[in-house]
Amino acid sequence: MTVLKTSMRNFLAHKGRMALSAVAVLLSVAFVCGTLVFTDTMNTTFDKLFAATSSDVTVSDKDASDSGQTTSGNGKPPVIPASVLDEVRRAEGVKSAEGTVFSTSVTVVDADKDSLSPTSGGPTIVGSWNSNDARTMEITSGAAPEGGDQIMVDGDTADKHDLKLGDEIGVISAVGTHTAKISGIADFTVTNPGAAIFYMDTATAQRTLVGESGVYTNVNVTAAPGVSDDQLKKNVVAELGAGYKVLTAEETAEANQESLGDFMGVMKYAMLGFAGIAFLVGIFLIINTFSMLVAQRTREIGLMRAIGSSRKQVNRSVLVEALLLGVLGSVLGVGAGVGLAIGLMELMGQMGMELSTDDLTVAWTTPVVGLVLGVVVTVLAAYLPARRAGKISPMAALRDAGTPADAKAGWIRAVAGLVLTGAGGFALYLAGTADKAADGSLWLGLGVVLSLIGFVVVGPVLASGMVRVLGAILLRAFGPVGRMAERNALRNPRRTGATGAALMIGLALVACLSVVGSSMVASATEELDKAVGTDFIVQHDRGALITPQAVEAVKAAPGIDRVTEYKWTEADFTTPDGETVKDTAITAADPTYATDLRVETVAGNLADAYKPDSMSVHEDFAKDHDVRIGSEIEVAFTDGTTGSLTVRAITSSKGVIDAGAMYTSIDTLATYVPADKMPLDQLLFASAQDGQKDAAYKALKDALGEFPQYEVRDQTDYKEALKDQIGQLLNMIYGLLALAIIVAILGVVNTLALSVVERTREIGLMRAIGLSRRQLRRMIRMESVVIALFGALLGLGLGIGWGATAQQLLALEGLKVLDIPWPTITGVFIGSAFVGLFAALVPAFRAGRMNVLNAIATD
Prior knowledge:
membrane; eight-stranded mixed beta sheet; 24 strands; FtsX-like permease family protein
C-alpha cells in the first residue's frame, strides 16, 4: 500500500513530464485499435451486404467464380442456358426462381464519354433488374427499366456524377457499346461499399453483356417455408446434375468474403506492422523518461533506502508509475482508436467507398488488445530504469552522486553492439552475394534485424564520436553557446544514443524504401529503353481486357504502321519428362511482338516461336523439365483442345518486362481455342509510320475517345506512369511511418524538457554570470538539432545499406540498376534539422522563462 501511495505521489508530482510519454503510448495504441476497429467495421459492412444480396441458393456455370466476379478471358460472363430455370423450378422445396444476367467486365460512360466507374477501385456492375436486387435497392426516382432504351442507376453514382432522369449513358462491353437513357434512380437500403451499379431489363442485359438471348449468368432460388438452404441445394443438384455450380447463401457470402479477405488481411497486418514500429520507437521515449526521472530523484531514493525501503520496493515503485502511465495512455488510446477508425471511414467515403457509422464494430478483443499491449510495452520499457533505481546505494544517493556509472557495463554494451552490428553486416553481405533471391531474402531479414539492434546497442558509443564531428561542423561557429550545446549532448551518451535511435528507426525505413523504389524505377526505365521497340502501349490501368471494338479503332488510326495484339491464357503442359504442369500461363501475340519487345534468348530464335504449332519456354522451366530446342510439349488450352507444340526458343527467366513468360502466336492459339472462347487482348503495341510519331500519338488518343477506360502511352508516358505508381505506394508507406517519426519527435521534446529540469540550477548559474535568454534558447535548440542529425545520420546510413542490399536481390530478378535518390536523402537530412528545431521550441521557451534566483536555489 505504501509503495502504491509513493508511486501515485511521484506520478502526480511529475505528471507534466509523463505527458509526452503518455501521448506516445496513446498514439501507438490508437493506431492498433483504430486498425482493428476499421477492418472489423469493413468486414461487418461487407458481411451485411453479402448476406442481403445472396439468394437462398444460386445456380451458375461450373466455371464461374464462387464470388460471382465475371472475369472470363473473352470479356463475357460465363452463362447457363435458360432451360436451367425451368429445371430449377421443378426441384422440390423451391418457392420461386429467377434468371439474371450481370457482368463486371464493363465500362459505363456519360454523354461526354467520361467514365462513371468508381475512383476507389470498386467494381462497376451492369445487370438485369430482379427481385433479389429489389431487396437491397429502393427506387427513389423514376421507374425500373423497360425496353432497350432504358437503364437505372444507383443513387450514389448519380450524385457523384450529377446524373438525372433522361440523361444518356453508354455501356461498353465485349459485345459492343449500348446507349440508353436513365429511367430511374435507386438507393441502397444497405451500405454501399463503393460499387457503381446499373440495371437493364433482362432481354437488354442479355444482348448487351453476352450478345445472345436465352442465357443467364445466375439463377436465384428462394426456398419454400420450412426448407433449409442446404436441403434446397441438395434438391436443386438432384434435379440439375453435376454440371453446374450450386451455392447456398452462406457459401456465396463466404466466397465473397474470402475474395475480399486477402486484401483486408494485407491492409490490416501492414497497418499493425507500422503500429509496431511506433511502439518500438515509443520504448526509447519511455526508457529515457524514466531514466531521467530516476536520476532526478536520486536523493529521494536514497532517503527511502535509508529509512528502510528495500531495492525491491524502490524497483516496484518505479514499475507502478509505469503501470499507471501505461493504463492511462492505453485507455485514452482505445478511445482515440475508435475516433481514428471513424476518421478512416470518412476518408474512404471521400474516395468513394461509403462506410456507415451504423456498422461501427468494436469487438471486445480490441480494447483488451490495446490495453494489454500498451501496459506491457510501457512496463517492459520502464524495467531497466527501475532496476537501475533499485541499485542506488543509500550513501551514494545521499551524497547526490546520482546513478552510479558502470564502466564495465559500458564496455560490455559497446562490445555487444559491435558484435551485433558486425553480424548484421555479414548477414547483409551474404544476402547481397546470394545466388537465389529466396535464399538472400532470409539473410536480408536477419541482417536488418541484427544491424538495427546493433546500432541501438552501440548508439551511446557512436554518439560520443558523431556528436563531436557534428559539433565541429555546425556548432563551433556559434562560439561558447555552440560548445555548451555540444557538451550538453555529450553529457549523457546513453540518453543521446537512445533519443537518436528512436528517430533512426523511422528514417532508416524511409531511406531503405527510397533506395528500393528509386532503383526499381531506374531499372524499369533502363529495361524499357533496351527492350521495348514499339512507339505506343495501349492498356487499361486496372488490368481490364481490351474490347474488339477498341482494337479496331486502334488499327484504323491514321499514321499507324503496325499494331501487335497481346493475349494471355492458361493451359496444362505435359513436358518431355512426363510431368503435367497445370494452370500455366502462356502468352499469345502477333509475330511482330518479337520486334516490339526484345526479349533475351538463351537458345533458339524467338521469332521462330510464332511459327505454326510452335512456342517458347523460359530458362528455369526448361531446366526443371528437361526441355530443349525441338522438344514437343502437349498443351491443353483452357476453353480449348490439346495440341503438340514444338519449342523453338528458350528465353531468360529474368527481366523486368514479361519475366518468365512463354510465348506462342495468336494463330496457333486460334487453332485450338474456338472463336467464341478466344481471350481478349491484355494490351496493344502500336508503332507509327516513319516521321509520323507525334501525329500518330494524337490520332490514337482521338481514336480511343469513345473508350475512356484505355490509356495511350508512349515510352516517356509509360516511365512517368511507372514512377507515379511507385511514388504513390511509397508516399502511402511514408505516411504510415510518419506515426513512428512523430513519436520519435515527442521523444526529443521529452528528453530536452526533462534535461532542462535536470539542469535547472546549472541554467540559473549560467544566467547569473551573463548568459542571455536568447543565448540559452539557442543553446537548447542547437543541442536538439545535433541529436536529431545524429539520429538522421544513423538512420539514413543504415537505410541506404539495407536498400542497396535489397537491390542486389532484385538484380537477381532483373532489376539491375542501383539508384540512390540523393535529393530525397538530402531532403530528409535537412528536414531532420528542422525536426530538431521544432522539438526544441517548448523546452527552450520554458528554459528562457526560468526565474534565475529560484533556479539557483533549486536543490
